[in-house]
Amino acid sequence: xxxxxxxxxxGTIGRRLVAWLRTAGEEVSAPxxxxxxxxxxxxxxxxxxxxxxxxxxxxxxxxxxxxxxLLRRLLAEARFDRMVYLSSxxxxxxxxxxxxxxxxxxxxxxxxHSGSDLxxxxxxxxxxxxxxxxxxxxCIARLSNVVGxxxxxxxxxxxxxxxxxxxxxxxxxxxxxxxKDYIHIDDVVPxxxxxxxxxxxxxxxxxSGIRTSHAEWVEAIAAATGATVTVEPGAPRILFPxxxxxxxxxxxxxxxxxxxxxxFTPAARAPGPAIASA
Length: 278
Fold this sequence. Notes:
- The protein has 278 residues and is α/β, with parallel strands linked by helices.
- It has one domain (3-274): 3-Layer(aba) Sandwich (Rossmann fold).
- The chain contains 9 helices and 11 strands.
- The strands form 3 sheets. It has a 6-stranded parallel sheet with strand order 2-1-3-4-5-9, with helices on both faces.
- β4 (82-88), α3 (117-133) and β5 (138-143) form a beta-alpha-beta unit.
- The longest helix has 18 residues, at 60-77.
- It is globular.
């Protein structure tokens, strides 16, 4: 039996991974932050879910510590068989072009003068360490915008809309034709478990492959809650490139659902079959 170690188990994805794997009958360790046992024990298959998200701009040093520094020490000192490093499709934000699909092997642009790019720079450094400093034991999951598992007080886009909707009114500060790729957490977790089993290599986009517009989101949320919708005058259009998911389709037979329908008509997926080795 594989032993799974979830680092960052208190976060949204980490918590769901722990619960899902335990339901599947797997041996799971979820060490707390600062637990020194991770330097002594055999960690088995590691899922590196540690990260700083919405508040990274105000916490640059902690962001680099989470995405790079601790990872570097783990690669150098910890005992493990495999590692899946959770990155983000946010790194494609500087790829350029509205409609060119974002592929795992494409060259990426970052700007060190931009505070927003600190996140991308740190994630890309973590990815590079895994690719070139893990002796072939680590792979990367670039997660799209994950919905369906956020805490109620999350500052992410969809939880924020849902909070506003419960108050009766959604006010958008970005244009209705803004669009990004989103994926439901129930489609993410089984894929991460399979990647941790092996023999996944390199970088994988974990996304739905579908760009969902703000208009689609607010229409669905308003229909479910009865909330009214207003848009800030002159709100900017924010458009991320479509995300190519050919690798997860080919190697894992993945078929992620459209995020809007998945969020409002969730269907839990049984843990057993999806964890089988590829």
